[in-house]
Amino acid sequence: MKLWSGRFTAELNDIAEQFNDSLVFDRRMYRQDITGSIAHCTMLGKCGIIEQSEADTIVAALNNILHDIESEKLDIVGAEDIHSFVENELVSRVGDVGKKLHTARSRNDQVATDIRLYLRDAIDEQTDLLKNLVSALADKAKKEKKTAMPAYTHMQKAQPTTLGHYLLAYANMFLRDIDRLNDCRRRVNVLPLGSGACASTTFPIDREYTAKLLGFEGVTQNSLDGVSDRDFAVEYLSCATQAMLHLSRINEEFVYWSGEEFGFLILPDEFSTGSSIMPQKKNPDVNELLRGKCGRVIGDLVSIITVMKGLPLAYNKDMQEDKEPLFDAADTLSISLKVFTAFIAAVQFNREKMNIASAGGYSCATECADYLAAKGLPFRAAHEVTGKIVLYCIQNGKALQSLTVKEYKQFSDLFEDDILEAVLPKNAIARRNIMGGCATEEIDRQIKILKSQLKKIALR
Ligand code: ARG
């Protein structure tokens, strides 16, 4: 039965009904819907808006419905949306008293409450998943803190660094994603129930009590805003998009690292797939999907902001379109984080190839310029001299490490024997022992900071 059939004389057209119904996708909010209803009903009983015995009957039946859904005794079918489904089921179980549940409530404030509860759970789950990923990256970074590799700018070899340093860069990004999600959680965690359809309610409800029962930190302050605010959904999607962007970037690197030309990364068999025609192939499908899935989450964000753009106050049915993108983004982010964390634990790197690559492309030219600058030559002049040395190397097919001290001295009197040491990648790395740098001790320090930040999140 429809919740609103009173003023209608004809049934809804079949296609219009199919078009209008949201049960197929909002059914997943059954737990949030029932939990919200239990809190609302408990409040109605406490405030004397319905009899305590009536509230008890309704709450008990709601708990039974929840139990029956979870134990798969009850299928969620045959209603307009999850709110109608639960209410119809309630009335079929307890009769007319069940019809009192919706006192001082509208589906407009109910659905806004359900989504907030759903997102709060998603954020908590994803905070844990992100923490696991940051830990996995930190553990891997520890193992690879001495693995030299080139750092790139413009995708050209720039300066030597370590794989540990590189992995920690991403760990920091994912740590910020946790921070962002938890900042967003504060604005998600506010109760809109009590806003009614739009202009609140005439019943003397206790919104703060309901908020407390549901673990909300506060209540929305304006009922028109309460039912029509989806900022928190846009914000969540933007946080999810940002995390997916990070996943997409690191996986782009892993995709080409796994190819023969780079050969930095050894794809674990458990995380790659073959070709139906080319027997030799081992493809980075998981990494490519992690890159590709970012596209759909960006689409989810664009979808909601487009729905919300230009919507007048207060509730409009357009807003039913908020759920599928939200669910899709939440599902996509969760599985992506899980698979990537497992991938990080399993992946191996070709340390030798990375080490060799770290010296290529004159990546120690900055060391040479710094060497001269440390001896008093203004850096700009040191840069110019080093540029000439690089040109000499290019013209003579030499590397900075294969020049003799005599050759160096042709370019400046400041060069001494120790220049040969200065242009070795391992020394370039070891000297970058400043905050944020790539030296081994610094990697240890950065890991410590990350771990203590993760601990702080656990305490919040
Ligand atoms: N299924 C609806 C949604 O998701 C529930 C709210 C219905 N409210 C209404 N006034 N028709 O938005």
Please characterize this protein's 3D structure.
62% of the residues lie in helices and 5% in strands. It contains 19 helices and 6 strands. The model has no long low-confidence stretch (mean pLDDT 96). Residues 22, 26, 81, 107-108, 111, 315, 317, 319-320 line the site of arginine (ARG).
List descriptors:
460 residues, mainly alpha, two-stranded antiparallel ribbon, two-stranded parallel ribbon, binds arginine
Listing every helix as H and every strand as E from the N terminus to the C terminus, the arrangement reads HHHHHHEEHEHEHHEHHEHHHHHHH
List of distinct ligands in this structure = arginine
Helix percent band = 55-70%
Main beta-sheet strand count, sense and barrel state: 2 strands, antiparallel
What does the secondary structure layout of this molecule look like, with pairings?
Layout lengths: L13 H7 L2 H4 L3 H17 L5 H19 L11 H13 L12 H37 L4 E6 L2 E7 H26 L1 E2 L15 H7 L4 E2 L3 H6 L2 H28 L6 E2 L18 H24 L14 H24 L1 E2 L1 H9 L5 H10 L4 H18 L8 H5 L9 H4 L2 H6 L9 H20 L1
Bound molecules: arginine.
Arginine binds next to helix 6.
Concise synopsis of the structure shown:
By secondary structure, the chain is mostly helical. It is built from 19 helices and 6 strands.
